Amino acid sequence: MRPVETFLLLTVPMSFSLSSKGIFLTPLLRLLFGVLASGAFSPPAVGADGYFCAVDHSVGFSFNKTIKEWNPSIFKTTEKLLIARSSEEDIKLGFAWVVKEIGSSSPSYVCDTGFNDAGFLHCQGVIGSVLGSFTFNKRNNRFLATYMAGYVTDGIGLGDLFEEGSNTPYMKIGKCSPL
User: Fold this and answer.
1) What pLDDT is recorded for position 130?
2) Rounded to two decimals, what is the model's pTM?
3) Most C-beta atoms within 10 A of its C-beta, which of 54, 55, 80, 97?
4) Long-range contacts of 34-39 (CB under 8 A, 24+ apart)
5) First to last CA, the chain
6) What are phi and psi of 89, to 5 degrees?
7) Is the pLDDT of residue 151 over 70?
8) Cα gap 57→59, rounded to integer Å
9) Are strands 80-85 and 69-75 parallel, antiparallel or unpaired?
């Protein structure tokens, strides 16, 4: 049974009745079985070697140095990403997949494992989870990326790297296409 069929069977209220003429399905069940039989909810291709992704929206927080205050921000972005199987070198480091900005040779995020049974790929920022995460769903080809440094790491007195406002925490969403 395909995942969508299992989901629908567990979540959609259905009813039927038995009579001497057979099983009668409600209109909802007839529609549901018709859609499933058509193949409209078939799963995506499993063997993709990678994905090309475009950031649609980016939001976060930025520090206003004039008033010394953090404020919500909407960032303009044209960023493009590549989700790719790891190179032999990256595999030796324990990574199954990597996420790179187009034009960059080093990964922004690394993924210790491949896709799970639900179709998700979970990755961490290259310096650890405090710097963010990347989650991709191959069933709907959407991703969510975060960068967590900034508000909680800045202003702790460790020099320019953590000067108040030197890092800007954000969350990005976008869509990908299989290569």
Assistant:
1) 60
2) 0.69
3) 97
4) 36/2, 36/4, 36/5, 36/8
5) 27
6) -65, -45
7) yes
8) 7
9) unpaired
Biggest alpha carbon–alpha carbon distance for the chain: 82
* Pairwise CA distance, residues 139 & 76, whole Å: 27
Whole-angstrom Cα distance, residue 17 to residue 25?
7
Rounded CA-CA distance 170/90 in Å is 26
Give Cβ neighbours of residue 11 (< 8 Å, ≥ 6 apart).
none
d(C-alpha 26, C-alpha 23), whole Å: 10
Query: Three-class SS string for the chain?
Result: CCHHHHHHHHHCCCCEEEECCEEEECHHHHHHHHHHHHCCCCCCCCCCCEEEEEEEEEEEEEEECCCCEEEEEEECCCCEEEEEECCHHHHHCCCCEEEEECCCCCCCEEECCCCCCCCEEEEEECCCHHHCEEEEECCCCEEEEEECCCCCCCCCCCCHHHCCCCCCCEEEEEEEEEC
pLDDT tens for each residue of 99-140: 999 998 889 999 999 999 999 999 999 865 568 999 999 999
> Measured between alpha carbons, how far is 133 from 130 in angstroms, rounded to an integer?
8
Dihedrals phi, psi of 37, to nearest 5 degrees:
-65, -25
